[in-house]
Specification:
Blueprint (H helix, E strand, L loop, with lengths): L13 H11 L4 E3 L6 H5 L7 H5 L4 H9 L13 H11 L7 H14 L10 H11 L7 H7 L2 E9 L5 H9 L4 E7 L1 H4 L6 H12 L6 H17 L4 E6 L9 H12 L6 H22 L2 E6 L1 E2 L4 H7 L7 E2 L5 H13 L5 E6 L5 H7 L12 E3 L9 H14 L19 H19 L7 H20 L6 H7 L3
Helix pairs in contact: 1-19, 1-20, 11-12, 13-14, 17-18, 18-19
Length: 479
């Protein structure tokens, strides 16, 4: 019998245990897509209570509490922190089978040294103990990232964000690197009610008058330069469903003019303008050597009640319908034909599309660029144990698993780096199964390189080609 959350948690064979403890556990973390608040990191925020650190920024927990019947005021509303924490404690015992059960235990154990299961019975003691520890430097925002061994954190930043926290971090220096990454949703949201207001704000930020599509592109370019100056190397956009409807430049320019004049665009015109902007952005990313991320497959129009209560990021979205791969291929092909296809990560939220998008990675390649197009890590509703295993097997079946760039948090919670440990244990257990079954050679050098590449080095090489080449040898020698 193995104790819950022992050192060998999720590691079901001697090979799995050896791979994890000897080769994966000590590696740093490259987090190339997160929603961590950069202000909290730059200011090295000290949290006043456990709810502020643990509950207030985590839509995963919000969803579970809603399913458990908790009132919204005790989830995202005005309830005191203790009431929100108690609502989470009431919910945790019902999360068995959900990764939240494991993540909750890992977060309490790794950061606070607490082995007790969170429940209404243990809530008082855990609340008191954690709050007593919170003032310690190791539990500040930067202290938590240091504990998790985060080397690089890419935040998600709107085109108009000031990026002051990134300047602050770069001026300070230190081992932790926090870089901005562009979240381009508002650039292509031409059918959103606030698009004209966005353009007006962009005029102010760029110092350029936006009197047409080319001027809009130029103003975007001014802001991209600011991101570039602060080390940005990643940009992403949420495409709930792919779009590709190419049109002549003059046609698209006319559509933009009518939009700015107050016209309501037809659906075809919306698709044409979005396509033109996505192609422009892709070309800009390629020119700047940035990575393009496409997050595909969310259904964000669900409960209007929750949207009214919580805003646009309230954790009420669900998995969308299967996507039209022809549209994704059209976009990538058009960029490739212009010699403007950047390195690209395709994230799909619908697990039934994983094989399809994994196969796309073999359709768009680049000489001298291993894994130019990647199937992204198991994302959102897929970052559970079954989803991670399914994603790893899909990558192996359809492409080159050994070239994959590993895991990312995609989270707003500073405690969510336990998900990297979760991924690494699941990866080592799967590879251990293959070795124990005689499906992989029991070759220590081969296995060490394979595991460490998927946990760290592939992402580092892919995102930070200028990084110190000697670091790999040093870490590979870490016990």
């Amino acid at each position: 019998m193995t104790d819950y959350l022992s050192d060998d948690f999720l590691l079901c064979s001697p090979t799995a245990r050896s791979l994890y403890h000897e080769h994966a556990a000590a590696l740093p973390i490259i987090d190339f897509h997160s929603h961590i608040d950069p202000h909290s990191v730059a200011d090295d925020r000290v949290f006043s209570d456990l709810a502020g650190l643990w509950i207030s920024t985590d839509p995963y927990k919000w969803r579970a509490m809603r399913i458990n019947g908790i009132a919204e005021h005790a989830i995202t509303g005005s309830a005191p922190g203790r009431e929100k924490f108690d609502a989470w404690a009431q919910t945790v015992p019902y999360t068995v089978g959900n990764p939240l059960f494991h993540w909750t235990s890992l977060e309490l154990k790794r950061y606070f040294g607490i082995d007790a299961l969170l429940s209404p019975k243990t809530a008082e003691a855990i609340w008191t103990d954690c709050n007593r520890q919170l003032p310690q430097p190791r539990l500040s925002a930067q202290g938590l990232l240091k504990q998790a061994n985060v080397e690089l954190l890419c935040t998600s930043d709107d085109l108009l964000d000031s990026l002051a926290p990134h300047r602050q971090m770069q001026a300070k220096g230190g081992a932790l690197k926090m870089l901005p990454s562009l979240r381009a949703d508002r650039i292509v949201a031409v059918d959103a009610p606030g698009f004209k207001a966005f353009c007006s704000a962009l005029e102010t930020a760029s110092g350029l008058r936006i009197d047409g599509l080319e001027a809009f592109k130029a103003a975007i370019g001014v802001r991209l330069e600011v991101f570039q100056s602060l080390g940005c190397c990643v940009a992403d956009v949420g495409l709930d469903q792919p779009v590709f409807e190419p049109a002549q430049d003059g046609v698209v320019a006319g559509i933009f003019d009518r939009l700015m004049a107050g016209s309501v665009l037809a659906p075809l015109e919306v698709r044409q303008l979005k396509t033109a902007l996505l192609l422009h952005l892709g070309g800009e990313y390629h020119r700047r050597h940035w990575v393009m991320q496409l997050h595909i497959g969310a259904q964000r129009t669900t409960s209007q009640r929750l949207r009214d209560l919580t805003g646009g990021a309230g954790g009420y979205a669900c998995i969308g319908s299967s996507s039209d791969v022809a549209l994704v291929c059209g976009l990538l092909n058009q960029l490739e034909s212009r010699d403007a296809l950047p390195r690209t990560i395709l994230f799909t939220l619908n697990p039934s599309d994983a094989d399809m998008f994994a196969s796309v990675t073999g359709s768009f390649t680049g000489e001298g660029i291993p894994g130019k197009v990647q199937l992204g890590p198991a994302w959102w509703f897929n970052d559970n144990r079954d989803g991670m295993v399914r994603q790893l097997k899909t990558l192996g079946n359809m492409g080159l698993l050994g070239r994959h760039i590993g895991m990312t948090t995609d989270s707003r919670s500073l405690l969510s780096y336990s998900r990297h440990e979760y991924y690494r244990r699941i990866l080592c257990n799967l590879v251990g199964e293959w070795v124990e079954a005689g499906e992989l050679p029991r070759n220590p050098d081969f296995l060490q390189t394979f595991i460490q590449d998927l946990c760290y080095f592939n992402a580092r090489r892919w995102l930070r080609p200028d990084a110190d080449s000697g670091l790999q040898q040093r870490i590979q020698g870490t016990p």
